[in-house]
Amino acid sequence: MELKSGVKLSSTMAMWVLLTTAAEELDAETTAIWAMLTVAKEVVEGYGVEFVITSGCEGKHKKNSLHYQGHAIDVRTRDLPYHQRSPCAEEIHRRLDDDYDVLLESDHIHIEWDPKD
Fold first, then answer.
1. Rounded to an integer, what distance in angstroms lies between the CA atom of residue 87 and that of residue 45?
2. With CB atoms counted within 10 Å of each terminal CB, which end of the chain scores lower, N or C?
3. Single pTM value for the model
């Protein structure tokens, strides 16, 4: 599914976004996830490549992965030149607060909302 904003989502993540954005008021969790999506999209597109979420809740992840809670996404990096991948991930991390973890993996940028209490 592709949103009007140009974000391409997997079917599971698309359903989640549609359901949560239909709410009249966004709770803290939804606001945090929306911020993660928005920042990641702006940064990736700033590098001149298409923003594609390759994994949300679906897929195979570690046992306690935040993907299964809907708190993590993986963003495609194959269209980013190798030398731009690390700066891109670092910029996403800088623009989000300490409640987010950003990890550059071999074929994607993993971003998760993991509030620190």
1. 13
2. C
3. 0.75
**Which of these CATH numbers, 3.20.20.10, 3.30.160.20, 3.30.1380.10, 2.40.128.10, describes 11-113?**
3.30.1380.10
pLDDT digits (tens, 9 = 90+) for 79-99: 999 999 999 999 999 999 899
Of 76, 72, 73, the C-alpha closest to 88 is 76
Where along the chain do its domains lie? 11-113
Contacts of 38 (CB under 8 A, 6+ apart): none
- Minimal CA–CA distance to 54: which of 91, 22, 88, 14? 14
- Could you tell me the strand order of the sheet in which 100-104 lies? 53-55, 72-76, 108-113, 100-104
Cβ proximity of 8 and 51 under 8 Å: yes
Tokens, residue 108: 């994607």
